[in-house]
DNA sequence: GTCTATATCTCGATAGAC
DNA sequence: GTCTATCGAGATATAGAC
């Protein structure tokens, strides 16, 4: 790796840190340069201006930081106990989206969406990947006759809305909210039960 | 109304406009004062500093802008067709939360939640009011024997998650997203049907 | 490509007159 | 209470040397 590439990587890392901690307007190019141990003109020569720096760095971070739960989802349809497998899968998903760095990044993107609408597209696109993994699982369960899910994509949105999104929504407005012992498990399993009851075969 | 009160009101309105359009860090007290046609020291004499201005003005706006759907909810339990009444109620709720000013304010609050955690509490509190109206309706339906909803508060969160929150989530990351003809109605009614199937008596 | 140094501007906040 | 005028700090961005 050339010295220039190293500096670019250092700037990227420093910029993510500053943007996440202070927001777009609150982060200064000065501070980013200092944190990356380069001079300010080096930042500008690599990224042009502050807006492009933000878009490049945060957009890349969104894509790279994505946690692919596809392999876990693909086991649901073949599991001996689909309910347990579903709860397990959604539990893992909830764990990921409640991570503090994920939540902070999420709030940053939402807050800057008017200035950077492209980031909303990236976010939606990244999230769709895990949705699709579940869609495949439900299509398989439908085919096997275990469930009656004629519109798997809609069903997936309903299930994740009651579980993953509901948990994330709480922390979106209350970052310090501490879930009680068993509260998250109860939230997930009750959502799964509503879902399975509604989409039961017969 | 005294001249001082008029100026305070003008500052409040101007501050909401600037904060909503530019975010906390992006809005300047200069611009707020100019928009309110007062001098900067007048702003400071009324609100102390920028942070208190933001908290006071946005907090008040959140509380005042709240749309009380309680009366509409109280009709659900007595309606001849509870399903239709529920769909009607949630459709009105969706309409409110998708309004552009509501969405923009929501993104602003989320983006600044680390700096102003109190606003998250206000938001949660305001939203709980509409939740409680639905809780009352389900408790009544449970008592009547029309539904089997032993935990109405949990059930309300599940229903709103699939309908109101799901619609709002889409627009949160994609402000310009246009719902197709009938897409919102389908989203709401399918959510209601999942809910009613899962919580049917028997 | 990368640096030092700086131009230019705007910010939040306040002193002092009225 | 409200104004004009201004302070000091810190912002983005760039010129010019190497």
TrEMBL record, chains A, B:
The keyword Transcription applies. Residues 28-47 bind DNA. It comes from the Bacteria. InterPro entries: DNA-bd_HTH_TetR-type_CS, Homeodomain-like_sf, HTH-type_TetR-like_transc_reg, HTH_TetR, Tet_transcr_reg_TetR-rel_C_sf, TetR_C_Proteobacteria. GO terms for biological process: negative regulation of DNA-templated transcription. PANTHER family: HTH-TYPE TRANSCRIPTIONAL REGULATOR RUTR, TRANSCRIPTIONAL REGULATOR TETR FAMILY. SUPFAM superfamilies: Homeodomain-like, Tetracyclin repressor-like, C-terminal domain. This is TetR/AcrR family transcriptional regulator. The keyword Transcription regulation applies. Residues 5-65 form the HTH tetR-type domain. Keywords: DNA-binding, Transcription, Transcription regulation.
């Amino acid at each position: 790796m050339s010295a220039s590439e190293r500096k670019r990587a250092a700037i990227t890392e420093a910029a993510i840190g500053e943007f996440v901690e202070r927001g777009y307007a609150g982060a200064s190019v000065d501070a980013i340069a200092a944190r990356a141990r380069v001079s300010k003109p080096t930042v500008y020569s690599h990224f042009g201006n502050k807006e492009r720096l933000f878009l490049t760095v945060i957009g890349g971070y969104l894509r790279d930081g994505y946690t692919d739960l596809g392999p876990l989802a693909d086991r649901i349809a073949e599991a001996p106990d689909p309910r347990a497998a579903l709860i397990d899968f959604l539990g893992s998903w909830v764990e990921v989206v409640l991570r503090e760095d994920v939540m902070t990044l999420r709030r940053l993107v939402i807050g800057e969406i008017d200035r950077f609408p492209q980031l909303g597209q990236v976010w939606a696109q990244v999230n769709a990947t895990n949705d699709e993994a579940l869609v495949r699982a439900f299509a398989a369960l439908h085919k096997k006759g275990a469930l009656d899910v004629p519109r798997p994509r809609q069903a997936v949105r309903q299930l994740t809305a009651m579980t993953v999104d509901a948990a994330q929504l709480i922390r979106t407005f209350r970052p310090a909210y501490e879930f009680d012992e068993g509260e998250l498990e109860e939230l997930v399993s009750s959502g799964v039960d509503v879902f399975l009851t509604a989409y039961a075969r017969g």
